[in-house]
Recover the amino acids of this structure.
């Protein structure tokens, strides 16, 4: 199968972040992904991940780091509003410090 790569005339970049959904009281992971996706259905840059305690946000193709920072800041701010509505917090880390993967 051939995969076509859409090149650009100059260097570009894009970023995606996987965000953990956290209970504000216990700081443990919660399976809030489906609810957050539903509340963010008009936002094309919020996506489901493999596990329900994680969601993804991403940027468009950006021309520089300042553009990435602007897009991510705006998207995280909107997502924090969704968190407030649902009673969640979010965190960005490689692994959750005390969650058991099997749960």
């Amino acid at each position: 199968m051939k995969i076509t790569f859409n090149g650009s005339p100059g260097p570009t970049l894009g970023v995606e972040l996987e965000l953990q959904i956290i209970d504000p009281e216990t700081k443990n992971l919660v399976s809030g992904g489906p609810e957050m996706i539903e509340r963010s259905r008009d936002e094309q840059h919020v996506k489901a991940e493999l596990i329900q305690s994680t969601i993804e946000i991403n940027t468009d193709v950006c021309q520089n780091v300042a553009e990435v920072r602007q897009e991510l800041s705006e998207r995280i701010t909107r997502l924090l509003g969704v968190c407030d509505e649902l009673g969640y917090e979010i965190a960005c880390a490689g692994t959750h410090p005390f969650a058991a993967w099997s749960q």
